[in-house]
Amino acid sequence: MFNLLNNSIMNLTINAVNFEMAEKLEQFIEKKMNRFERHLNGDDKVEIRMNVIKPQTNANKEVKIRIAGLFAEKTADSFEEAIDACLAALEGQLEKRKNA
What we know:
The chain is α+β, with helices and mostly antiparallel strands. The protein is 35% helix and 33% strand.
């Protein structure tokens, strides 16, 4: 588990299950979350759980992201693809909440 407090307002926790997370992936997540934080309040907690489901199959990278009471879960060929898909889904959920 990694606890990353970005240089701004977000509290980010990353859990890597069944694999050891490379620094490159950690940097990718931080970059994406720094861009995404414009949608968040100052005290929002972000939890990211990444899991390798079955190493020998395609689309075996699962990502679950929980932010501000919202949740997205996606599976893809890479963690980067799954993270992008989760953040796109969460952005849509935040827009719906904002417009409600």
